[in-house]
Amino acid sequence: QVQLVESGGGLVQVGGSLRLSCAASGRTGSNYAMGWFRQAPGKEREFVAAIGWSGGGTSYADSVKGRSTISRGSAKNTIYLQINSLKPEDTAVYYCAAGTSVRSIMLAANYWGQGTQVTVSS
Hints:
With 122 residues, this protein is mostly beta strands. The protein has one helix at 102-108; strands at residues 2-7, 10-13, 18-26, 33-39, 46-51, 58-60, 68-72, 78-83, 92-99, 111-112, 116-121. Helices cover 6% and strands 51% of the residues. The model has no long low-confidence stretch (mean pLDDT 94).
């Protein structure tokens, strides 16, 4: 089992930036890709970004591409999501996910965190 704990959410103004963190523990000896999803009120959960175990492969949703960066810490068990130029439509609960590859996360992640709320206010 892999446990994922998110942090860094909160209230941010339109145009601002935030950085979310996700720390993995448990069976972290396995090479897991990790990523982020989000779910806004009344909407389905959607993919945001993902990164491979080595940090060399990334994927972004069109909605955040160009204004966000996903990265992996040197210890490999922590990932970060930096989002700039925040918009009201970025308001959502952001979930960390882990899987065997970036593609597998996008299709069906193996593990999920509890989520962290991000609210973008005008």
